[in-house]
Design a protein that fits this description.
Structural class: alpha/beta
Oligomer: single chain
Distance between the termini: 69 Å
Strand content: 15-25%
Number of strands: 14
Largest sheet: 7 strands, antiparallel
Strand order of the largest sheet: 2-3-4-1-5-7-6
Length: 507
C-alpha cells in the first residue's frame, strides 16, 4: 500500500520544498526501511527539489506475519486472515506504520525547523486505494470539515467488466494548507475509520490514542460520534469514555456528543438489570491517561451545572422545571438534592427523554425518588398549562438553539404563561470564543447554535424580558474569566417581582 505527501512552497517562500524531509525526520537522499510486526515500511522521495518535494511511504505487508502465533483454535481463525486486501489497501495497518515511522512529525516536533513545524503548508496527499464502505461521500464527509479539498474516485470491481459496478475502494486525493502534524493526525485516525475495521485487538489505551491524535479537531468535527464509534470498532464502553472526554475538551455536555447511547450491548444490559439505583451529584470526570494521574480541573459543563444549582438554592426553589433537559445531566443532580421536591424535565425530543429514563434508571428508582420526577415532551415555543405554578425554571444552554424570530414565542411561553417565581438562563458568551484556539473565527461553539450573544447583547435581551414580564434580573459569570473577553458562559437569574415592589424567592 502506498501513501504520498507532496509539498510545493508558495512563490516567494523563504524555505525550499525539501524541508519536508526535516519535518518528517527522513533524509530525501536516502531510502529507509522500517521493520513492522506485519511487514516492512519503506520511505522514499520520488522527487526532491526546491520547488516540489514528495515523500512516499510504501508498506509491504506479509499476510503470514499477520497471523503468526495464532492457532487454529482462536475465535477469529479463518481463511480470510490469509486472503484479504491488507497488502494493497490503505487501512489500519498503514495508520500504525504512519504512527511508527513518522512519530516525531505526528507530534509536531522539529528542532531544526520549529517555525515550519508550526506553519500551515500547501500539501497534497494521495492514496491509490482506500477501503471506504461508505463510498466517496464518506471520505468527503470526514475530511472536508478539516479544511481538505477532497477527490474520492470509486474504483471498479474489475475494469474489464464495468457492468459489475464499483467496489468499496476509492482513490483518494487530499489538498489543503494544513500543518503537517495535523495532516498526519487526520490520516492516523480517519484511515481505519473509513475502513471500518482494525487488524489488532482494541485495548483501553485506544481511547488515549484517539484523544491525542484528535486533539484540536475531533471534538469540533460534525461527524465526531461516527468517527469515534468506527475508530473504536463500536466497543460501547470505550466509545462512551472517548465521547465523554471529548465533551470535556469541547466544554459541552457529554450528551451533546452522544456519549450515551439509545441502546446498550448485552453485557451492559446485564449489568443494568442487577445494579442498584444511586442518584448522586456528578463529579468532574477523571480523564487522565495511564501516564498522567493528576486530577483535572472541572470542565465547563460541570461548572455550569454547579452554577445553576447554586442559583436555584439561592432563590429557595423547591419545585423546578428543567426546560430543554436533553438527556438528563442536570436532572440527575437535582434529584440528588432532597431540597428539590418536584423536578420536571421537558424536551421536544422523545429520543432524549428515553435516554434520560435509561440513564437515571427510572424503572428501578426507589419510589421516594420516582415521585419527585416527571418527564414531559413539549416544545418550548408553545404555551403549556402543565408548566404553571413552579418555583423556578431552568433554560440551560437552550436559547441559542432557538431561531431568533421564535425567541418571542419562547419568552411568552416561559415568562408569560408558565411564569415561575424564578428563571435561570445560561448561554455562551460569544466574546470568549476567541480564547479557543481551535475554534475558527466566526464559527459557533456548536453546529446547532442559531446565534451566540455577546455580554451586551445578552444583557439587552434579559433587560427586555424582565421589563415585559415583571422580573428583576442579575448576572453571574460561569467559568474562568478572561480579563478582556469575560467568562465562557453567562448566566442570568430572573426573579419575579411581587405587588409591593420587592422580589420573591430571594434568600
Amino acid at each position: 500500500m502506498l501513501l504520498t505527501i507532496t509539498c510545493a512552497p508558495p512563490e516567494g517562500a523563504a524555505w525550499p520544498a525539501t524541508d519536508l524531509g526535516f519535518l518528517l525526520h527522513k533524509n530525501p537522499d536516502r531510502v529507509q526501511a522500517f521493520e513492522q510486526s506485519y511487514g516492512t515500511a519503506h520511505v522514499v522521495y520520488p522527487e526532491a527539489t526546491a520547488a516540489r518535494c514528495t515523500a512516499a511511504l510504501l508498506l509491504e505487508v506479509d499476510p503470514i506475519r499477520l497471523v503468526r502465533g495464532r492457532s487454529r483454535g482462536t475465535p477469529d481463525f479463518s481463511l480470510g486472515q490469509y486472503v484479504n486486501d491488507r497488502p494493497y489497501a490503505a487501512s489500519s495497518l498503514l495508520s500504525v506504520a504512519l504512527g511508527a515511522v513518522f512519530r516525531t512529525a505526528l507530534h509536531g516536533r522539529c528542532d531544526q525547523r520549529p517555525e515550519l513545524a508550526r506553519t500551515a503548508l500547501p500539501l497534497r496527499i494521495a492514496l491509490p486505494a482506500v477501503p471506504c464502505k461508505g463510498g466517496a461521500e464518506a471520505a468527503e464527509r470526514v475530511f472536508a470539515p478539516l479544511g481538505w479539498t477532497v477527490i474520492a474516485e470509486p474504483l471498479p470491481l474489475d475494469p474489464a467488466f464495468p457492468e459489475w459496478g464499483d467496489s468499496h475502494y476509492v482513490r483518494l486525493e487530499l489538498a489543503g494548507t494544513i500543518r503537517l502534524a495535523d495532516a498526519l493526525a487526520h490520516l492516523y485516525v480517519l484511515l481505519p475509520v473509513l475502513d471500518g475495521a482494525k487488524h489488532y485487538w482494541l485495548a483501553a489505551d485506544e481511547v488515549d490514542k484517539l484523544i491525542r491524535a484528535g486533539a484540536g479537531w475531533l471534538a469540533e468535527h460534525p461527524e465526531r460520534g461516527w468517527i469515534t464509534r468506527r475508530y473504536l470498532a463500536r466497543r460501547q464502553s470505550l466509545v462512551r469514555t472517548a465521547l465523554a472526554r471529548l465533551a470535556e475538551v469541547d466544554d459541552v455536555e457529554a450528551e451533546e456528543l452522544d456519549a450515551v447511547e439509545d441502546g446498550c450491548d448485552e453485557a451492559e444490559s446485564a449489568e443494568n438489570s442487577t445494579a442498584e439505583l444511586t442518584v448522586e451529584p456528578s463529579a468532574p470526570t477523571q480523564s487522565a491517561s495511564v501516564a498522567d494521574s493528576d486530577e483535572r480541573a472541572p470542565s465547563l459543563a460541570v461548572l455550569r451545572r454547579a452554577a445553576v444549582l447554586a442559583a436555584l438554592r439561592e432563590v429557595g426553589a423547591h419545585r423546578v422545571l428543567d426546560l430543554g433537559c436533553g438527556e438528563g445531566a442536570l436532572l440527575r443532580e437535582l434529584l440528588a438534592d432532597k431540597a428539590f421536591t418536584d423536578v420536571v424535565g421537558v424536551d421536544v425530543s422523545m429520543r432524549a427523554l428515553n435516554i434520560t429514563k435509561r440513564r437515571l434508571r427510572v424503572e428501578r428508582m426507589p419510589e421516594r425518588v420516582a415521585r419527585r420526577l416527571t418527564l414531559l415532551q413539549g416544545a418550548l415555543t408553545y404555551t403549556d398549562a402543565r408548566l404553571r405554578g413552579y418555583d423556578a425554571a431552568v433554560l440551560m444552554e437552550v436559547v441559542e438553539h432557538i431561531d431568533e424570530p421564535r425567541l418571542g414565542a419562547l419568552e411568552y411561553a416561559v415568562f408569560g404563561s408558565a411564569a415561575p417565581g424564578s428563571v435561570v438562563v445560561t448561554t455562551p458568551n460569544a466574546e470568549h470564543n476567541v480564547v479557543y484556539e481551535t475554534l475558527p473565527t466566526g464559527k459557533f461553539r456548536h453546529s446547532d447554535h442559531r446565534f451566540e450573544w455577546t455580554r451586551a447583547e445578552f444583557a439587552r435581551w434579559c433587560a427586555g424580558v424582565a421589563e415585559r414580564y415583571g422580573y428583576a434580573v442579575r448576572f453571574v459569570p460561569v467559568g474562568v474569566e478572561h480579563p478582556e473577553f469575560g467568562p465562557p458562559t453567562q448566566l442570568a437569574v430572573f426573579t419575579k417581582a411581587v405587588t409591593d415592589g420587592s422580589t420573591r424567592g430571594t434568600a
